[in-house]
Structures are given as structure tokens and as C-alpha cells.
Amino acid sequence: MTRYTGDKAAVAALVQGHQVHRDVYIDPEVYRLEMKHLFANAWIFVGHDSQTPNKGDYFTTMVGDQPVIQVRHTDGEIYVLYNRCPHKGTKLVIDRTGNTGKFFRCPYHAWSFKTDGCLLAIPLKKGYENTGFEQTDAGHGMKSVGAVMNYRGFIFCRLAEEGISFEDFFGGSLSSIDNMVDRSPAQRLEVAGPPLRYMHKCNWKMLVENQTDTCHPMVAHESSAGTAVRLWKELDMPEGTPLPPAMEIIAPFTSPYEFFENMGIRTWPNGHGHTGVHHSIHSNYTEIPGYLDKLSATHGEEKARAILGENRHNTVYFPNIMIKGPIQQLRVFIPLAADKTLVESYIYRLVDAPEELTARTAMYNRMINAPTSIVGHDDLEMYERAQEGLQADGMEWVNIQRLYDPDEDFEQESVLNGTTEKQMRNQFHAWVKFMTHDMPAREAAE
Amino acid sequence: MSVTKDDIIDFLYDEARMLDEGRYDDWLALWLKDGHYWMPLDYKQTDPLNVTSLMYEDIFMLKVRVERLNGARTFSQKPKSRCHHVLQRPWVDEIDLESGRIRTTTQMHYIETRLDEQMLLALTAQHDLALIDGRLRIANKRVDILNCDAAFGNIQLLP
Predict the structure, then answer these.
(1) CB A423 within 8 A of CB A410
(2) Interface residue ranges in chain B relative to chain A, Cβ cutoff 8 Å
């Protein structure tokens, strides 16, 4: 029995402003609709262009549930192609990264394709003469996604052929990527090593919501950050002893509610938003010697200070990534099923900046976001408990009402108290928009 | 001051037993104070600092890690995990009694369980040991997981 497929009103009714129905987290049918509509109509993060620096370099990943290849073509441009041979469906490459030279060659029947997807050659091609092969999809080579954008090194794509433009989709939220890239004296980031890969038995949206959930750190992370702060105090170091880098990273997780209320949350249209408008857990890191001078040489000192003064905590790019500008981290929440999400956490090097900054970022990544992280352990525990708890009948709604205003507007940028759940409501507002806007046309066509 | 190959091998078995039995104070006492526990993220990783690792922890952070396991509000350890190391006989790769530096390689299977879940990891542990006042100590430890690049759920105890 289908309850939501082809029923725009039923999908829209899952979101009621101050609450959302549990089916958005637990129903496999809703998950399939998300893959078909939301992840096709929105702009989705693919990878960073430094992951494929040379011609023929490729990187394989998922856009929603779609296997894709990010590849650098012979003209230097990056293409995003479906990872499927147009012949029998075989994935053309299965390693995560590699170099394919000038063409992809299918290992099954040796069909080959240029790195922009065009058909190059088929063995014994005369067998297709006078068969109408040229008019088929298979005859056209590998299929490209609908649209690709390289924004300052970050590759996004829209699967749908038609739809919202990149600029309209992201709007003012691109200022967080700008701030992250502007922190490089060369105005360029480079991926630093492979990402952490952390499997979560929960819905992908729980992770995205948690990025701007500022009322959980002092509770869920008391066991890690609280223990660290207590043990550091017990060392009874002399007054004025600087905190070691690990303590600078973990201690702010136990900051009081007031700290998070005052940090502020900004929302942008289409589900994007960030915590840490005024300050954040990244504000008080020790300055790295020589960095400000290098950055000032690029931007002038005033602008360099303004760039470093921006300490946005987590920026959510709806639907499924989060970036941390001040430490050059990006986390992508890849939805594998209604109750299964793969989280990949990347870090980037600021080209021409002191390497100590990369070391701090690597430390943050392993301390907070690894499967071995004492902070990550408690987050995952909460998500998985929620995924199981939501099965309970009798209460079918999840509350997202903190600082709710029935008249709130999602079409304008807003800055609010840092503990508001407006950013979660903003995500669900966008969720309904991109889930439903093409529903009637698509369903009718099938 | 001398140490035999058997002493070294016994030391490594004892260390694994401490971890399996949750005797973390004893385990921390094995370490030299500037030691690091390194678990690389990448196969044959050479740099612990400027790319991501799964763990690269000094003694202070290791202490935080094991203290946390017994905390009243350590939610991911309610109920607690249990672990089990099965060691192949360690290779003693190097004994330099002049400098007191010893290097070993130990292959093992590591099992961690909690609630209805159980996971098995194949590990290679490399220990740098030091002989200090006649006692073996851990100077550094590197633990490589065979499938380090796979996606894992929580790994909560110490492989």
C-alpha cells in the first residue's frame, strides 16, 4: 500500500510548522520519494575539485541514492556522470578515486567513453548497423547529471534537467563557503587525505538537524567534554597555563546554555542556515604565528581580520552537508535507507597557510567525528535511540517548537536567538518545497 | 638490565588482558608520559598529524577516554561494551638493550560487543617499548585496522 506516492497533499501534511510526522524519519516510502524528488530537484554536494586535480582523475560517490563519478575531462572541466555503463548497467569504476586516462572502458564488453561521457568506441560495432542504435539512450554514451556547478572548488550538481538555478538555490548562504576559501592566502583549498567514514543506523535528517541543535552539547557531551574539563582542572596547572589544542577543541562543548543562546542562528531561504553568528565554539583558538600576516598580504589587514573574525559554527547547506569555515571541515550525510546514513567527514588544507592549521583541523575531525570519537559516540547513541523510539505508536509527531513563531517567514534571511529550532523548521519548509513541486507532473508521466 | 624475548611477549599479552578486563588504571600505568596511541585512517598512512586519523591521543586524552567509560552520564556506555583480543604470537622485531628501545609487531583479532551487536576487527599493533628501571613501558603504540577505510559504527573501547 502506498500512502504518499503521487499524493502531494499527504507529503505536505507531514510537516506542520511546529512538528513533523515520524514518517519523515522511518517510512521507506518517504525515503524513496526523497531520493526521487528532493535529491533530484535540489543542488547536492558531489566533491571538491582538488580530489580530481589532473585530467582523467575521477572520484566516485553518491548523490542521494544515485552512483555518480566526478571526473576531470581533457578540457580541464569537471563532469559529473552516472556511474553506469549505458550498455548493461555495469558500474564503470568502483574504486573511490583513480585516474582513467583519456577514457572510461567498461570491463564487461569494452565499450569505451570519453571523460565527458561521449561514446568513443564499441568492439564489433557493425553488429549495431541498421538497428536504430544511434537513436537509443545507449547509443548516446554515459548519462550526465542535469547540471553541475563548481563554486570556488566545491562541486555541486542538480540531477533534474530543469529546475532552480544554483544561485537562486543557495543565495546568501554562499558567504560561508566564501569565508572558508577566503581563509587561504592563495584563495584555494585542497582536500587533506581521505574522509572519516562513519555508519549511522538512523535517518539522515537527524544528523542534519543536529548540526544546529544547540541544546544538546552540554547534555549529550557532558561525559566527554565534561570529563576532559574536570581532569584538566585536577591537574592543577599554574594560573595562565595555555590550554593544549585538544582542550581548546573539546572544552567549549560544555559551554552553558547562555553561550549558545547568545551565539545566534541565521537562516536563509531554501533550508540553509548556520549557528554561531556572533561567536562560536571555534572563536577562542590560539592564533597561529605568521598566519595573519600571510592572509593580510592577500586581502589587506582589515579584510583579513574581518575574515578571521567570522567564526560561524555549523553551516547547513540543505539538504545534506554541513561545513565549518573556521576549521575547513565538510561533512556529508549520505542517505542509504530510511534508517541508514553514511557520514563522511572531510578536511581541507588552506593553500599557502601554516600547516599548524591543518593539524588542528585533523585533530578536530578525529576527536569529534570519528567512529572512535568519544564525542561522536554519544551523538550516534542519541540518533539510534530516536530511530528505535519513533516506532512507538500513540505519539506520531516530533516536536521542533523551540522559539516557534506561527508567522515566521522562511523566504527572508533572519538572525535569531542561538537556541531556536527555526533552522530545523526552515529545513522542513524547504523539504516540502523540493519534495512536492514536481510531484503531479512526474507521477502522471509514469 | 636485561629483558628476554619471552618477557616482551608476556608484556604484550598482559596489556591485552588489562584492556579486556577493563583494568584501565593498570593499562595507563604502562605508558611513558609522552607516548601516543595512533590508529591510522588510511592504509599505510605515514603522517599522524596533517591528515585525519581515527585516533592520535596523548596520555591526557587517553585518560579522558577511559575515565569517561565509567561516567554516570556516559549514555553510549549504558549498557557497557565488552571487548576481547585474540593475539597471534608477537614478533619481536628489534631489541636494542643499549638504548633500551624495543619494537614489536602483533597481529590480532579484536571483538567488541554491546547489546545485540558484535563486531570483529583484524588488527596489526606495533609497539615501541622502553626498558625503564628494569620495567617494560609503552613508548608509542600504532594500531592498524585491516579495513581501516571501511565505514564503521561506534568503536568504543580500545583495540
Answers:
(1) no
(2) 39, 41-42, 45, 49-56, 58, 60-61, 63-65, 67-68, 71, 73-77, 149-156
Structure letter (DSSP) for residue A342: E
Beta bridge partners of A60: A69
B42–A372 C-beta distance less than 8 A: no
To the nearest whole Å, the CA of B37 is away from the closest chain A CA by: 12
In a domain, B151, yes or no: no
Q: What is the CATH number of the domain that holds B36?
A: 3.10.450.50
List of chain A residues whose C-beta atoms are within 8 Å of the C-beta of residue B61: 228, 246, 367
Q: Is A237 on the interface with B (CB under 8 A)?
A: no
Q: How many domains does chain B have?
A: 1
Average pLDDT along chain A: 96
- Secondary structure class of B57 (helix, strand, coil): strand
Question: Which of 363-402 (A) contact B at CB < 8 A?
Answer: 363, 365-367, 370-372, 374, 376-378, 380-382
Chain A: residue whose CA lies nearest to B71? A223
Percent share of chain B, pLDDT over 70: 99
**Would you place residue B18 in the very low, low, confident or very high pLDDT band (cuts 50, 70, 90)?**
very high
Inter-chain contacts counted by CB atoms under 8 A, chains A and B: 115
The fold adopted by the segment(s) A178-435 is Naphthalene 1,2-dioxygenase Alpha Subunit; Chain A, domain 1 (3.90.380)
ipTM: 0.97
Cell of A331: 561533512
Question: What value does the mean pLDDT take over residues A42-62?
Answer: 98
In this structure, whether the domain defined by A44-163 belongs to CATH 2.102.10.10 is answered with yes
Tens of pLDDT, residue by residue over B60-116, are: 999 999 999 999 999 999 999 999 999 999 999 999 988 889 999 999 999 999 999
Alpha helices in A224-353 (DSSP H): 227-234, 245-250, 257-263, 291-299, 301-309
| C-alpha–C-alpha distance, residues B72 and B75, integer Å | 8
Nearest to B50 among A250, A362, A376 (CB): A362
- pLDDT exceeds 60 at position A442: no
Residue A444 has pLDDT above 70, yes or no: no
The CB density around residue A6, as the number of other CB atoms within 10 Å, is: 14
List Cβ neighbours of B158 (8 Å cut-off, separation of 6 or more). B19, B27, B37, B65, B66, B83
Mean local confidence (pLDDT), A420-427: 98
Residue A220 contacts B where some CB pair is shorter than 8 Å: yes
**What is the predicted pLDDT for the residue at B1?**
59
Domain of residue B14, residue span? 3-143
* All three cell numbers of A257: 546554555
Predicted TM-score of the model (pTM) = 0.97
